[in-house]
Please model this.
Amino acid sequence: MTAERAINFNPGPAALPLPVLEQAREELLNFKGTGLSILETSHRSKAFESLMLETENLMKDLMGIPDGYRVLFLQGGASLQFAQVPMNFLPAGKTADYIVTGGFAEKACKDAMQVGRVHLAATTKDGGHRRIPRQEELRFSPSPAYVHITTNNTIVGTQWHYIPATPGCPLVADMSSDILSRPLDVAAFGLIYAGAQKNMGPSGVTAVIISEEMLARVPQGLPSMLRYDLQAKNNSLYNTPPTFGLYTINLVLKWMADQGGLIALEELNGRKAGRLYRVLDRYPDFYRGHAEEDSRSLMNITFRLPSEELEALFLAEAGKENMTGLKGHRSVGGIRASIYNAMPEEGCRALAAFMEGFYRKKG
Ligand SMILES: *Cc1c(COP(=O)(O)O)cnc(C)c1O
Model:
């Protein structure tokens, strides 16, 4: 009846684990014996409140989030966090330091400039954002309110492989495209945010992991929906949340635990990316990787071919083999393979084999 499911390399909204989609379909008409679909269930019901609590705890267990942190599920995408972070934590008279490693980092920086004083601690824009700056290249302001980084640069395909030391201030990170892809020392961060639609579930939910220390610093005078402390106090149920998205995230987190958690997922993600980068390294004149080797992303693999005609042909031929979502972002061009947690290893094996074959025909 339905066509075969595609091998989905979309950057976001991205592939979801098949067992999650199947369970959502299974439970769609009757959520946990309530006689109602989750789509028709009150966010004030016992069933939904316990789902919220369970989801926060699943995040804490999977990521090893220490005591003294809350997990919030907010709205407005990662993009609203670009504004909400400075509105809460960049007071008048202080400076926030931004490290700009790609388009989303730049957007975050620009929004912060609408709110207060910003210092550019490093940017890789000149080289086309092909790499992550080294610690010794970071030039912080004397006493920043916080330092902001983007751990995985979805468009250009670079990723931080170390946690930068800050001059004694909180580190804030946009982890939209690599949250839950590898173990992480959450204690090194004051605030982490991530739009759900890359690695956690459908669009419409933004996860925020925030320390109690940061929560205590929220200033008076902000509108309710923009207050992290109010959202925390209300267990992210201050207003009506995207209930179906949260339900799906709950299923995705359980699926991640079933895969063996973040240690197992990191290993799998390394194998998946390795298959593709090995093809790039074998034919570097044909498959021209965008990222420098030590800054390569395990989530988004970006490369150009010798001509735009070949790139168009590559996409068309890959489409015939049931692979979709491979077109690069317009700012980089070429090809981007997004291979978040839910991309099975077979998908990367199929793409690597296709790339070998395409090189033999056209290289
Ligand atoms: C996708 C993405 C965003 C934007 O997310 P929205 O939820 O669409 O606002 C921000 N930052 C990064 C790193 C992303 O990958």
